[in-house]
Design goal:
This is AbiEi antitoxin N-terminal domain-containing protein. The chain is of the alpha+beta class and about 325 residues long. Among the domains are: about 5-60, no CATH class; about 140-195, no CATH class; about 200-300, Endonuclease, Chain A. Helices cover about 45% and strands about 20% of the residues. The protein has helices at about 5-15, 20-25, 30-40, 60-70, 80-85, 135-140, 145-160, 165-175, 180-190, 195-205, 255-270, 275-280, 285-295, and strands spanning about 20, 45, 50, 75, 95-100, 110-115, 120-125, 130, 215-225, 225-235, 240-245, 270-275. Strands 9-10-11-12 form a 4-stranded mixed sheet.
């Protein structure tokens, strides 16, 4: 790299170690020299006319940059690939997804998917062109396998700074939006405070469908030895609910859980109920029955309702 023109070296750095033959020629490095670098093993050809300028294992961003250069003008990372750069997820997708203008037809290479789009709002993150946050969310919701997956993506996006109002505005401006109704329902839950699929299920399937009072969500409060965060708290009724999204917890109840519950009991005289995915997603009626019993013991005079003929709530 030291013998290459300084401008080309800077370009390669911005492109995460990737460069095209055309870019080399534009910077005064002819095709013969590019071929020599590849043949000698200093460079590697990843796609036709797209070369990696370092040896060793390829980073995910190098693969993403190479896919974009192969896809050509107007290409941008989209879907799960864009989600990584926007901070929606830390899971790196094995296949790089790019979107290109509708009139272009680049051929996908192994390890990448090319989608054509008549309209996509683009931005740049870490030198890589990507669909903007609202567009990325709508793409992910449209391809979600379940309501929980869709809620997970929207929740992650909102935590990363995406504004629900921007999502609603973009959806309203487009005539075709995949799973539009689901998107609206998910945004309603997120705006009500749900930050995970489990919290949304608790609000919808345990509280709302069984006529339980609405809990306050995601509250921070100070105890004698520090601050704690509660998933759901029935303010003034002495009951709080903690939700654990893990399907299983081999270690069982942790010492931190015990210290926290004891601190809550001493400070507020509150009982803490803990539920996992199975309790909320598979047995919401039994969970509602238990929450109602705890609330009644603390003075709630309301009456829960059965959600179906076979409901455990009576």
């Amino acid at each position: 790299m030291r013998e290459l023109p300084a401008g080309l070296v800077r370009l390669v750095a911005r492109q995460h170690g990737v460069v095209t033959t055309a870019q080399c020629v534009a910077h005064g490095v002819d095709r013969v020299r590019v071929h020599r670098l590849v043949r000698s093993g200093w460079w590697r050809r990843l796609h036709p006319g797209v070369h990696v300028t370092y040896t060793g294992e390829l980073s995910w961003r190098t693969r993403a940059a190479a896919a974009l250069l192969h896809a050509g003008a107007g290409a941008a990372l989209s879907h799960e690939s864009a989600a990584v750069l926007h901070g929606f997820t830390s899971r790196l997708p094995r296949v790089i997804t790019v979107v290109v203008p509708w009139e272009r037809h680049p051929v996908a290479r192994p390890g990448m998917v090319v989608r054509r789009r008549r309209r996509a709002i683009r931005t740049t993150v870490r030198e890589l062109p990507v669909t903007d946050q609202p567009t990325t969310v709508l793409d992910l919701v449209a391809r979600s396998r379940s309501d929980d997956d869709a809620l997970g993506w929207v929740s992650a996006a909102v935590r990363a700074g995406t504004r629900p109002a921007d999502l609603r505005r973009l959806a309203a401006a487009q005539s075709r939006v995949g799973r539009r109704r689901l998107l609206g329902e998910v945004l309603d839950l997120v705006e009500e405070g749900a930050e995970s699929p489990l919290e949304a299920r608790y609000h919808r399937d345990v509280e709302r469908r069984h006529g339980l009072p609405r809990s306050a969500r995601q509250g921070w409060e100070q105890l004698a030895d520090g601050w704690i965060r509660s998933d759901c708290r029935y303010v003034g009724r002495g009951v709080r609910v903690e939700l654990d999204g893990q399907l299983g917890h081999p270690g069982g109840r942790t010492s931190t859980d015990t210290w926290r519950d004891n601190a809550v009991a001493l400070t507020h005289d509150e009982v803490t109920l803990r539920y996992r995915w199975d309790h909320v997603a598979v047995h919401p009626c039994r969970t509602a029955q238990q929450v109602a019993a705890a609330l009644h013991r603390r003075g709630w005079t309301g009456t829960p309702r059965a959600c179906s003929p076979g409901c455990a709530v009576r």
